[in-house]
From TrEMBL:
Keywords for the protein's UniProt record, in alphabetical order: ATP-binding, Nucleotide-binding
Lineage: Eukaryota, Metazoa, Spiralia, Lophotrochozoa, Mollusca
Superkingdom of this protein's organism: Eukaryota
The protein's name in its UniProt record: Protein KTI12 homolog
Biological process, per Gene Ontology: regulation of transcription by RNA polymerase II; tRNA modification
Assigned protein family: Belongs to the KTI12 family.
C-alpha cells in the first residue's frame, strides 16, 4: 500500500499533520496505518542531529523500518523532516521496488514560526537554538519537478490539510514503474555461471591467438560462435577483459536458457561494442 513522506522544517507541525493524515486514511483502507518516526520515544533528537554518524544510522533505521512495514495492505507515514533530497529519493526507490504509489506532504513554515513552535514544546522535544538554525539552513526543499517529490502536496502553516488530494495521489495514481536497479535480479544456476565464464574466456583467448597472424580485413573465427569478427586493429587483453566483464554483468541479470548460445552472443556484443 502507499507511502506518505512528511517533509518540512523542524517544529513545522509535521507530527500533527501526520496524525491527521493517519486518521483520514484509516477510513479509506482495511489495512493498518503506521506512523514511523525518526526520533522514537526516549531518544534525544539533539544528540541525533549533532552527530553525523548517529544521524546516518537513524536514517538507515528509518528506511529499514519503512521497508518492513510497507505491504500490499498497510499504509506507512514517515514522520520525519526528510530534509535531504537524496534520502527522499531512497524512499521513492523503496516504493518502486514495492510497486506502490507515494506522495510527499510539505508542511511549509517560516523560520520565525518554526523557532516559536520549537520554544513552546516540552523540553525533551525541543531542538537547541543552534541546532534548529543549522537544520533550517540544511533543508532542501521538495520540488514538483523531481520525480521522487511527486505528487507534492503543500500545506501552509495556517491552512487545513486537503485530505482528498492525498487520497487521489495515493489511491488513484499509478505506482512508479520499477527499473533494473529496484528489481530483484534473476537467479542463475551455478552451471550457467561456469559456462558463462568459460565460454567468454575461450572467445578472448581465440581472438588474442588469431590476432598474431591476422591482417586488417581478415575474419576471426571463435569457438561456439557462428558469427565472426573482422580484424581491423589489435585488441589488447585489458580491453577484451573489460568488455568480457561488462558482458558477464549483463548476462547475469539476463541469463539465457541455452548455454551453447553464449559464445555467439558474446561475439555479437563485441561486434556492436567495437564498431
Amino acid at each position: 500500500m502507499p507511502l506518505v513522506v512528511m517533509c518540512g522544517f523542524p517544529a513545522s507541525g509535521k507530527s500533527k499533520r501526520a496524525q491527521e493524515v493517519a486518521e483520514f486514511l484509516k477510513t479509506k483502507t482495511k489495512g493498518n496505518v503506521h506512523i514511523v518516526e525518526d526520533h522514537p520515544e526516549g531518544i534525544n533528537r539533539n544528540e541525533i542531529y549533532t552527530d553525523s554518524h548517529k544521524e546516518r544510522e537513524t536514517r538507515g533505521n528509518l528506511k529499514s523500518h519503512v521497508q518492513r512495514l510497507l505491504t500490499k495492505d498497510d499504509i506507512v507515514i514517515v514522520d520525519s523532516m526528510n530534509y535531504i533530497k537524496g534520502f527522499r529519493y531512497e524512499l521513492y526507490c523503496v516504493t518502486k521496488s514495492c510497486r506502490t504509489p507515494h506522495c510527499v506532504i510539505y508542511c511549509v513554515t517560516n523560520n520565525v514560526t518554526s523557532k516559536s513552535w520549537n520554544i513552546s514544546r516540552d523540553e525533551h522535544l525541543r531542538y537547541s537554538d543552534d541546532l534548529i538554525n543549522e537544520l533550517i539552513n540544511r533543508f532542501e526543499c521538495p520540488s514538483p519537478n523531481n520525480r521522487w517529490d511527486k505528487p507534492l502536496i503543500t500545506v501552509m502553516q495556517d491552512e487545513s490539510l486537503n485530505c482528498e488530494d492525498i487520497a487521489t495521489a495515493l489511491f488513484e495514481q499509478s505506482a512508479p514503474p520499477p527499473n533494473q536497479s529496484t528489481q530483484s535480479q534473476p537467479l542463475a544456476s551455478t552451471n550457467f555461471l561456469y559456462q558463462l565464464d568459460k565460454c567468454t574466456q575461450d572467445v578472448v583467448n581465440a581472438i588474442l591467438a588469431a590476432q598474431k597472424t591476422s591482417v586488417p580485413g581478415d575474419h576471426i573465427s571463435v569457438p561456439d560462435a557462428k558469427e565472426h569478427l573482422v580484424f581491423t586493429r589489435t585488441l589488447t587483453l585489458a580491453e577484451l577483459q573489460r568488455h568480457r566483464r561488462q558482458f558477464i554483468t549483463y548476462s547475469k541479470s539476463h541469463p539465457v536458457s541455452d548455454t551453447s548460445k553464449i559464445g555467439n552472443l558474446f561475439v555479437q556484443y563485441l561486434k556492436k561494442t567495437l564498431m
